[in-house]
């Protein structure tokens, strides 16, 4: 055992580096022999899927179906006019519903600081285009020759302008969009799973009870012993009165869906192992916190429950939940087993609940001998999907489990995860014996319900003008604008702010609490537009986003001529969450960006038509769908 712990220590450096922003080093422990555990898994799956298996349906309604909603909201007229900017005149024959209140439009489309282009002839294809001097600003709805992008000068000719130098582009506003960088800053890369998990913890102040969802409960192995009953109130559960009191104070009126099904199993006798999956913010932490608090004996002053989390910050977040729930159990205490906490060998731990990272917990059990594994009654692995991304964490978790299970065969082991894909399933099944599996899954269909378009802009600067012209339309619902770099995001946000508009900005150099604040403000509607980079492209659930703008297309890190398909999917997946309708608009400003969009179109096999600003019908169609 001593050697085992020593070997495991070598992975600790790697795993403990897993604090935010620190890449793991290549110090991984030798692989743990594959567990001999052959598991019998009962499985209760709560999901929305269709299957031939017997299904019990809970919940009402069918909110999984795409909800018809107005893409740009408000009146079409307001949308059209505001999106095209003052100075736009509809082409002949275009359908414009009468504006019942032109003054209202004028106010909404032209807030303080807005400099509309002067009214001018409408000769075709430019958003925000006014007088001839302003041609070239904003969108070009102008000609495309098949696959090719027609350069501005040639477009002028086709539009009836004389050949010659391009007209001056920015007569009223002076700006110059930042050039794309040669190398991607690591702050512009998507957030790490640890960061996403932590950010989500900051974000979720209230649980998604999901009471109105159409939920199926599926019993894979119909075990008559299996406790397929649910708790519709916390009082249905055998919780200590002090805990019930704390839940009242915390405003927990009724259990969330995962709690409804997991808690009766978690609290039953004899203790039952569990693998539980449900998306972020659905009440998982509260579930296992209640399990630990219910099993801990307050009058016994030694460690009894262990909870593993991938980072220090996540451990602290869990600890705060446990403390709040234990506020009327003064004898129950929490200790954090995290790096650099100053705890040495020989310290007598009196706390019943120890929460920490696998590396440090490994020390506590091994070389520091601070925890007696035979006294452990509950072992929790939280954020299993994040944890398994590091081999070191996997190995250490396995080692800790084996040590505790050997010394305390009745230990209740619980694994919680926000996702449940194959690697998590394999890890969970390898790790935990005889577990009941409770999974709650909502379909997150990104593509089918998202309409994708591209819009031609004459230049990088033209993209900015396009945003300005679309701005009022964007603010009628909530929109996210993705840029390639944080510099572009900051620049764009500054430009828009200078026009008197409000926008939220989020990039990878901001600390997590600031990022959470920006997202919270966006979710609360303080800001209707969020400008961000790939840092925010995945993991964050902002369900009301209706429009995603790819100001710059997502490109492969090593070859900027190739799209980053995954990131594209994740970016546009910020809209169209859970069956809602959404729109993704891709800005194209040169042949390269056009080709990137064509490749994306071919890759996903979904058409990305050109959104022609002259084509009122297309925009109306967006609005009507
Ligand atoms: N039954 C409940 N009633 C009201 N609020 C709840 C309930 N359960 C949890 N919450 C609150 O909802 C928020 C999200 O819950 P929790 O952190 O347990 O979710 P989670 O699934 O663990 O999310 P994450 O994966 O982000 O950690 C928390 O602020 C929590 O205090």
Helices and strands in order:
Layout: H1 2-16, E1 42-47, E2 55-58, H2 76-84, H3 102-109, E3 144-145, E4 148-149, H4 152-158, H5 193-203, E5 215-219, H6 241-250, H7 257-267, E6 273-277, H8 284-295, E7 305-308, H9 312-325, E8 334-337, E9 353-356, H10 358-365, E10 378-381, H11 384-387, H12 391-407, E11 412-417, H13 422-431, E12 435-441, E13 450-456, H14 460-475, E14 478-482, H15 486-498, E15 504-506, H16 512-523, E16 529-532, E17 545-550, H17 565-572, E18 582-588, H18 591-604, H19 616-624
Parallel strand pairs: 1-12, 6-11, 6-12, 7-9, 7-10, 8-9, 10-11, 13-18, 14-16, 14-17, 15-16, 17-18
Antiparallel strand pairs: 1-5, 2-5, 3-4
Provide an overview of this structure:
- The chain is α/β, with parallel strands linked by helices.
- Among the domains are: 193-219 and 226-444, P-loop containing nucleotide triphosphate hydrolases (Rossmann fold); 450-624, Rossmann fold.
- The chain contains 19 helices and 18 strands.
- The protein has a 10-stranded mixed sheet, with helices on both faces.
- Strand 15 (504-506), helix 16 and strand 16 form a beta-alpha-beta unit.
- Helix 1 (2-16) packs antiparallel against helix 10 (358-365) and helix 2 (76-84) runs antiparallel to helix 14.
- The radius of gyration is 28 Å and the shape is elongated.
- The chain starts with a helix and ends with a helix.
- The site of adenosine-5'-triphosphate has 19 residues, from helix 5 and helix 8.
- Residues 265-438 form the Helicase ATP-binding domain.
- Residues 232-260 form the DEAD-box RNA helicase Q domain.
- Its EC number is 3.6.4.13.
């Amino acid at each position: 055992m001593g050697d085992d712990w020593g070997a495991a220590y070598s992975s600790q450096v790697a795993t403990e580096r897993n604090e935010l922003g620190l890449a793991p080093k290549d110090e991984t422990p030798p692989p743990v022999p594959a567990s001999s555990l052959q598991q019998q898994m009962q499985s209760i799956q709560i999901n929305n899927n269709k299957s031939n298996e017997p299904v019990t349906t809970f919940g009402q309604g069918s909110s999984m179906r795409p909800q018809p909603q107005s893409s740009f909201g408000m009146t079409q007229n307001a949308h059209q006019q505001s999106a095209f900017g003052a100075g736009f005149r509809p082409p002949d024959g275009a359908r414009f519903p009468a504006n019942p209140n032109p003054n209202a439009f004028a106010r909404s489309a032209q807030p303080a600081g807005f400099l509309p282009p002067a009214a001018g002839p409408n000769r075709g294809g430019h958003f925000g285009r006014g007088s001839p001097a302003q041609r070239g600003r904003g969108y070009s709805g102008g000609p495309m020759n098949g696959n090719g992008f027609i350069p501005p000068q040639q477009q002028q000719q086709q539009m009836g302008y004389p050949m010659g130098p391009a007209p001056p582009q920015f007569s009223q506003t002076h700006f110059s969009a930042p050039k794309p960088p040669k190398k991607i800053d690591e702050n512009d890369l998507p957030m790490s799973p640890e960061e996403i998990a932590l950010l989500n913890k900051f974000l979720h102040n209230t649980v998604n009870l999901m009471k109105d969802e159409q939920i199926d409960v599926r019993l894979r192995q119909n075990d008559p012993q299996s406790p397929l009953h649910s708790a519709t109130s916390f009082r249905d559960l055998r919780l200590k009165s002090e805990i019930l009191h704390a839940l009242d104070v915390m405003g927990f009126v009724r259990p969330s869906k995962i709690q409804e099904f997991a808690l009766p199993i978690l609290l039953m006798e004899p203790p039952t192992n569990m693998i539980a999956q449900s998306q972020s913010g659905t009440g998982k932490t509260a579930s296992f916190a209640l399990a630990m608090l219910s099993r801990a004996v307050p009058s016994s002053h030694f460690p009894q429950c262990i909870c593993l989390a991938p980072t220090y910050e996540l451990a602290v977040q869990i600890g705060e939940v446990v403390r709040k729930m234990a506020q009327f159990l003064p004898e129950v205490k929490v200790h954090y087993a995290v790096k650099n906490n100053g705890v040495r060998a020989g310290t007598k731990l009196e706390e019943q609940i120890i929460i920490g990272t696998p590396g440090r917990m490994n020390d506590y059990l091994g070389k520091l001998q601070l925890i007696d594994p035979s006294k452990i009654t509950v072992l929790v692995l939280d954020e299993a999907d994040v944890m398994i991304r590091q081999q070191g964490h996997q190995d250490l978790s396995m080692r800790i489990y084996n040590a505790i299970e050997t010394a305390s065969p009745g230990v209740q082991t619980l694994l919680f995860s926000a996702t449940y894909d194959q690697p998590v399933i394999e890890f969970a099944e390898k790790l935990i014996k005889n577990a009941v599996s409770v999974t709650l899954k909502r379909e997150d269909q990104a593509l089918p319900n998202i309409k994708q378009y591209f819009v031609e802009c004459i230049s990088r600067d033209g993209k900015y003008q396009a945003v300005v012209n679309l701005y009022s339309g964007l603010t009628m619902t909530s929109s996210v604008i993705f840029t390639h770099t944080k510099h572009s995001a900051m620049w764009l946000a500054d430009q828009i702010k200078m026009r008197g508009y409000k926008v939220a900005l989020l990039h990878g150099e901001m600390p997590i609490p600031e990022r959470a604040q920006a997202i919270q403000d966006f979710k609360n509607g303080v800001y209707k537009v969020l400008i961000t980079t790939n840092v925010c492209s995945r993991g964050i659930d902002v369900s009301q986003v209706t429009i995603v703008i790819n100001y710059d297309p997502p490109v492969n890190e090593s070859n900027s001529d190739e799209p980053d398909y995954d990131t594209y999917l994740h970016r546009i997946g910020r809209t169209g969450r859970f069956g809602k309708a959404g729109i993704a608009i891709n800005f194209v400003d040169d042949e390269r960006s056009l080709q990137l969009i064509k490749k994306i179109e071919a890759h996903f096999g979904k058409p990305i038509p050109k959104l022609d600003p002259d084509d009122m019908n297309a925009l109306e169609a967006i609005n009507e769908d």
